[in-house]
């Protein structure tokens, strides 16, 4: 029996990236807890063909493989940097290449990073409606992290760690038997 797959997508090109660090941190904890196979990508992994693509078939082989990884995941951890109160354009462009049916009913833990707390509602006002359009199941607890929540690109805030724990708990609603198997 193959393991269920959790895929993280950080909508950032920067390396190192707090967004990637957050997505990877969440994905590692969730995968350890539920026994998921974990993969995490960012837009640098997707590469330059993304900017020229008008449809999935326009992506180069590497980018197409990452997009397929995202749409074939059993659960997604999506993270976006906040740029002027929203997600960056190339992150949205990647999501726009996905057919809505490819994310239908998929559980998604949404997260975002930003310089300060004034962008905290970006997850509710931008990411939740975006994935609602795809008829995906965004988990009730969304994660927002600001610069003060990190030290050297590692999550250091106890309040953030607690919120991440709440969100990871919510994954159990979609995979109750997976949680039991991982606990044994």
From TrEMBL:
InterPro entries named among the record's database cross-references: Flavoprotein-like_sf (IPR029039), FMN_Rdtase-like_dom (IPR005025), FMN_Rdtase_MsuE-like (IPR019912), NAD(P)H-dep_FMN_reductase (IPR051814)
Protein name: FMN reductase
UniProt-listed Gene3D superfamilies: 3.40.50.360
Species classification: Bacteria, Pseudomonadati, Pseudomonadota, Alphaproteobacteria, Hyphomicrobiales
Family to which this protein belongs: Belongs to the SsuE family.
Encoding gene (name): msuE
Alphabetically ordered keywords of this record: Flavoprotein, FMN, Oxidoreductase
Annotated NADPH-dependent FMN reductase-like domain residues: 5-149
GO terms assigned for molecular function: oxidoreductase activity
């Amino acid at each position: 029996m193959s393991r269920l797959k959790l895929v993280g997508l950080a909508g950032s090109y920067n390396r190192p990236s707090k967004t990637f660090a957050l997505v990877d941190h969440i994905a590692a904890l969730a995968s350890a807890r539920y026994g998921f196979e974990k993969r995490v990508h960012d837009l640098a992994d997707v590469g330059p063909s993304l900017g020229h693509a008008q449809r999935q078939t326009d992506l180069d082989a590497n980018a197409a493989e990452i997009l397929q990884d995202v749409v074939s995941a059993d659960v997604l951890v999506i993270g976006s940097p906040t740029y002027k109160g929203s997600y960056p354009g190339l992150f949205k462009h990647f999501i726009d290449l996905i057919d809505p049916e490819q994310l239908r009913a998929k559980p998604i833990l949404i997260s975002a990073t930003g310089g300060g707390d004034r962008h905290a509602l970006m997850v509710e006002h931008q990411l939740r409606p975006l994935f609602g359009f795809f008829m995906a199941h965004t988990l009730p607890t969304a994660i927002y992290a600001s610069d003060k929540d990190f030290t050297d690109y590692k999550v250091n805030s106890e309040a953030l760690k607690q919120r991440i724990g709440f969100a990871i708990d919510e994954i159990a609603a979609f995979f109750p038997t997976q949680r039991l198997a991982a606990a044994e």
